[in-house]
Amino acid sequence: MIFCVFLCFWEGNTAKTIGTKNESSLHRTLKYQYAGPGGRTEAEVGDFVADGINEDGDFIEVQTGSFAPLKKKIKEYTKKGKVRIIHPIAVTKMIEVYSKDGAFLYRRKSPLKGSSWDIFDALLHAPELPLTKGVVIELILLEITEKRIKDGKGSWRRKGVSITDKEMSAFHQSILFTKSKDFLCFIPFKKGQEFTVSLLAKETGIKRWKASRVLYVLTKMKVIKRVGKKSNAWIYTR
Asked: Which residues pair with 96 in a beta bridge?
């Protein structure tokens, strides 16, 4: 409910802010929600612009993709205060398609489903961020509605259909990571127990390539370590 209130309020606010030209409704909703009524958004911080600063002075960054572009700005922010990175993941996505003149055509459910494991895609090129003092990462699992228009200007993969906006339809869960060891919740093995990429994939039901990515990131974060190799498989332990 609270997300809906912020969305309705700020979409009705026509004041222009920095860097919002291509901002989705999803990004805007989360930005204002986490900045809060006593905070501010699009705040200049040195050479960067923070999505928000809440009333406690904590910096807010909403990041839907890779965390790699955040590395420099987060380093700057942590010199001045704490940082919360909000990472929305669409566990369910509905697609609404409109004609070029704006007429509604149809609505369908996307076969693609996100999960909390997708955080490792975001951390792949920035595994050091959870090790940075003062940084908190929050996953937001959502249902979203993606709006598209048949304008002939979109990706060839979508046959020219353009994505015009993404909106939050429903909130499912929030998962907070305040320190690197919190990420061990993804590892279903006890301390000292040895495991491989294949074993992690088998135990959790994720794809092998995803398991490989998970262990790469967690090794870089120094919450697990390689202890040897058997045949062509690396062996890990907590």
From this structure: 107, 147
Kind of pairing between the strands at 83-98 and 59-62 = parallel
- What digits encode the pLDDT tens for the residues 156-188? 888 889 999 999 999 999 999 999 999 999 999
**Which helix (H) or strand (E) segment is 50 a member of?**
strand 48-53
pLDDT value at 139 more than 70: yes
Question: What pLDDT, on the 0 to 100 scale, is given for residue 128?
Answer: 94
Name the residue with tokens 């409910």: 1
Q: Cα–Cα distance between 151 and 161 in angstroms, integer?
A: 6
The verdict on pTM exceeding 0.70 is yes
Distance CA 228, CA 36 (A): 48
Q: In terms of Cα–Cα distance, which of 114, 120, 91 is closest to 210? A: 120
Q: Residue 8 pLDDT > 60, yes or no?
A: no
Report how far residue 150's alpha carbon sits from residue 97's, in angstroms, rounded to the nearest whole number: 7
Interatomic CA distance for residues 211 and 196, integer angstroms? 9
Q: Give the tokens for residue 186.
A: 């993804």
In the predicted model, what is the mean pLDDT of the chain? 91
